[in-house]
Amino acid sequence: MTQQHKQPAKETVEKELTYIQKVWHTVAIVALLVVVILIARVAFNVLLMVLAGVLVSVYFHGLGDMIQRKTKWSRRLSMSISVAGTFIILTVLFWFMGAKISKQITVLSDSLPQTVNTVKAKLSEYPLGDKVLSYLSDDNSDKLFATAKQFFNTSFGVLGNIYIIMFLAIFFTANPNLYKDGIIKLIPADRKEMGRCVIDRISTALKGWLKGMMLSMVLVFILIGVGLSIMSIPVALVLALLTGLLKLIPNFGSLAAMIPGVLLALTIGTNTAIIVALIYIVSQTIVSNIVTPLIQKKMIDLPPALTILSQVLMGTLSGVLGIILAVPLLAIVMILVDELYVKKIETESEALDVES
Fold first, then answer.
1. What is the residue-level pLDDT of the chain in tens, covering all 356 positions?
2. DSSP run (H or E) holding 109
């Protein structure tokens, strides 16, 4: 009897120990998952900077290839001219246009309070405007500013991110084969050929996106600058430059760039504001119709809804840098899915059809 009583007691203790072990295992797994998520979020921002560095390197290589084709110079000389020439051109542009841009920014900042008061007076004349003003009360405006500040925060600050991205781009440009071969070495021997194919396809897609994006930014800058100058809108150069830069953010950038231009035009008159809004809309439509076919020749066709969802998700995770890089990152993901999954399924389906 004593042994019979001891046996169930021993089994009970073992069950309790097993249960406690399972609980601790679960807690450990959850804690490890939380740590991995936190590390992945920080590492994800670093990976985005690496992607930005790759895009800048793609630009340097594209310009170097063009110089080499036109001049028949050596690869090293063409790439040196590509990198040095880009920095020289940017320096010259800022040297000649910096004073005018700085002056217009000063005018814009000085006239901003008056502009806001004028816009409030204009909006208060309409019922819908009253609702907008009531929503943009002190509490709500503070929340909006806090959200915007958090949105534009980055891992190392704006200047720090630019510094890291430019150095990564220079390293990638100086010796791209080192990094490409390093990735290929991580792939199993029977998959190396497919790995090279995927890398080449991603490179082509990124070149297409970058070429189309740069062309659209220049065209938007010219069209908006000319249109606002004709309408005698103050600080037209700054507004055109802002519109060109915000073209980096598809869909949302165009809307954000239009707001300050329309607000300034509203201080002149309602009709002027309507014309300025039409200038923005028509310019963006023209650029989209010219540039979109160019992008789609080099990139896979991205569904618009999927593009917007990727921008919202990337903006939530990584702020403005995530939104800028959402489209090329989505293209990379879709290429990987197509090469590693879709084509494999199609090949297996064809093999089954042949056997049957």
1. 455 555 555 556 555 556 666 666 667 777 777 776 666 666 777 888 888 999 999 899 888 988 999 898 888 899 999 999 998 988 888 787 767 767 776 776 666 666 667 766 766 666 665 665 565 555 554 554 454 444 445 545 566 778 888 888 888 888 888 888 888 888 888 888 888 998 988 888 888 888 888 888 888 999 999 999 998 888 888 888 889 888 887 777 778 888 888 888 877 888 888 899 999 999 888 887 766 665 555 556 677 778 788 888 888 777 778 888 888 888 888 888 888 887 777 777 776 766 66
2. helix 75-123
The answer to whether the beta carbons of residues 204 and 91 sit under 8 Å apart is no
How many structural domains comprise the chain?
A: 1
Take residue 162 and report the two structure tokens written for it: 């630019």
Tell me which residue range forms the domain holding 55: 2-355
Between CA 238 and CA 8 the distance in angstroms is: 83
Angle 141-147-153 (CA atoms, 0-180°, nearest 5)? 135
- Length of the chain, in residues: 356
Q: Which residue has the tokens 């903006």?
A: 315
- 345's tokens: 């399924």
Long-range CB pairs of 305-313 (<8 Å, 24+ gap) are: 306/330, 307/250, 307/251, 308/251, 311/249, 311/250, 311/251, 311/252
Structure tokens at 233: 């809108």
